[in-house]
Each structure stands twice: as structure tokens, then as C-alpha cells.
Amino acid sequence: MKFSCYQKDLATAVTNVQRAVSPKTNLPALEGILIRAIDDKIILCGYDLEIGITTSVLSTVQENGSIVVSAKLFAEIIRRLPDNSVSIETDEKAVVYIHCGCADYQIVGIPSDDYPELPVVDAESNLEIESGILRNMIKQTIFAISDDNTKPIYTGSLFEIKNKMFRIVSIDGYRVAIRQEAVSCDTNTKFIVPGKTLSEILKLTTDSEQTVQITVGQRHAVLNIGDYSIITRLIEGNFIDYRSTIPETVKTEFVANTREFISAVERMSLLNSDRIQSPIKCMVYDTQVNLSCSTSVGKANDTILAHITGENVEIGLNNRYLLDALKNSDTDRVKVGLNGAISPIKITPVDSGEPFIFLVVPMRFKS
């Protein structure tokens, strides 16, 4: 194998592909990046048996071939090379020769035959969506994914397409995040994408109108994002009926300025820490929402003005869970619905229907 390409292009591709490489595994090839030189490009692949990322870089290829190189070492070398053309070639003993400017390296590679094949996805359904929309939908729901591996079904987000409405749903037992958008897709389907994959999608998508193609198979899905392709294992199992968790009516409702609400909660949060956790008490009455927090460190009170309808209510909330919901609301004002002190609060936008719905389970006060 022998090829040359620009250092910046190669460094960017290697950095992105490297994130799918397993840092420690019993199969040495999986700790590497597969490089294949074909005609006028090189194809790079990182794969940890759960998620794979591939991309191509335009190159001048003198000799087709393939090799696996240590992802960590190769990435460090390429990133530190001068901004110049990089020449890479291999010999019959799987030694990799790297030359750029006055810098030369020789590193030991692994034959590409040792690298596992990526799964082949037989399409059962397809979806096309703008990159910026998909990115926004994931950003507004990924915070509610569970990190409890004893319940793997909730360590990912549900992707549901039904009646030309695309929804992403995340649940961790303490909160629910739902984001939906209308799509021109006649297929009804649902599948669960691991949280790690969603994090990688966020890194590769941009706030643009570029189309992302999603191909869904029985156990895997492929997302084509620009020059990158992500193949991911899907989480198997039955996701909770999230619709049953959404209250149809509320007894109390108020509308508040999102930024003012966030600032007030952040001020109350100063008394909480990893060691000290106490709920923020929200007293909703008349035309205001009174916030207070009391811990062994001290006490704090604050008030925000709000348009309130319905019953007065007092509820305790986890400050971090509440802040996550408010910060991901992406709207100037939020509508908050309550059904007493022990039912989840519902946070939705005021003016644009319900493109997002956030539920936060309350905390009980100590007697």
C-alpha cells in the first residue's frame, strides 16, 4: 500500500474515526484503525463491535492495499506532523512508513485480515432528516438517558416514526425527555439507539440543512452524515410506554421566563453539592413562584414572577434534573404543569405546540 494526502485532512478523519476504537480489548486489531487505499482515496474505519465509524479522504494512491495501525499512536503522530503532504506506505512485513516534511516514522502495523468485518445492514426502513434538526433533537433528549447498566434498555434513546412524526424519547427513571418533528416518511418503525452512538452523532452533525440518511435493520442501523458513516448496534428490548407517563391534564399551570427561572434555580443550587443534596422547594401561588433550599451549609430563598392558573402547590425538585430540563428547553418562555406534590412536573414550550416535553419526578421533603 502506498498513498499521499494532506496532513490536515488525514488528522481530522483520524480524530473522528478514533472515537469508535476500543481502548482495551482482547483482540489487538480492534485497538487500531483500518486503512484501505483504493484508487483515488483512502478509507479509514474504527470499530469496537458496538459502533463503527468510517470515512474517506481524497488521496493520491500509488498502490492499493490495507493495514491496521495503532489508533492512539497513529493519531498522535498524524496530529503532530507539519502542515504538509503526508506519504504513507507499507511493506510485506506490515511495517508502516510515514513521511511528512523532515519527519519520518516507522511503526509496526497489523495485517488487515485480522480486522473484523462490519455488520451488513439489510434495510427494513429508511429515514432522511436535516442534520441541524437531528442534532437539535438529540441535544434536547440525551441528558435524560440512564447510565444504569442494570437496565440497558434505558441507556439509549427510543427513535420512533409514526404517522409521519419522528420522536426521540429518553427516560432514566427520574425524568422523561421527548422531542418530535414532522417528517415525510410513510414507514412506521421504532428502534433504540445507544447513548454512546448519540454522543458521536452530535460530534459529527452540524447545524445545517445537510441531509442525514438513516437506514435501519433488525439489529443495526447506519447513519450517513456527510463524509462519515456510523454503524451502530441497536439495543434490544421493550421500551416503556412513554405516552402513559405524560399527564393529559394539569391542576396548576404557570408560564415563566426561561432564563429567569434558570438563574433562580442556579442560585438555589449553590447550597447543594455531590455530598449534600436537598430538594429545591417550589411554592406556586398567586402570581409568583417562590424557590427555597435548606441544607447543612445554609438557607436560600428567591422568587420569580409568573402567570399562574389553578391551585396553589408546593413541590420539591432535584436541582440538577430541573436545570437540565430548563436549559434544554431552547425557548424564551416555558409552560410548567403540575398535579400536586407527588406527580411529575411537565415542561413544554408556550407558543409552538409541543415539539418537546420534559417530565421531572419530584423529591419528597424530609419530615
Q: Please, could you describe this protein's structure?
A:
There is one protein chain. With 367 residues, the protein is an alpha+beta fold. The protein folds into 3 domains: 113 residues, DNA Polymerase III, subunit A, domain 2 (DNA Polymerase III, Chain A, domain 2, Roll), CATH 3.10.150.10; 117 residues, DNA Polymerase III, Chain A, domain 2, CATH 3.10.150; 115 residues, Box (Proliferating Cell Nuclear Antigen). 17% of the residues lie in helices and 43% in strands. The protein has a 9-stranded antiparallel beta sheet with strand order 14-11-12-13-26-25-24-18-22. Helix 1 packs antiparallel against helix 2 and helix 5 runs antiparallel to helix 6.
Nutshell version of this structure?
The protein has 367 residues and is α+β, with helices and mostly antiparallel strands. The protein has helices at 7-18, 71-80, 131-139, 195-204, 258-269, 319-327; strands at 2-6, 32-38, 41-47, 51-58, 60-63, 65-70, 85-90, 95-100, 103-108, 125-130, 156-162, 165-171, 175-182, 189-194, 211-216, 220-225, 228-233, 252-257, 280-285, 288-294, 299-305, 307-310, 313-317, 333-338, 345-349, 356-360.
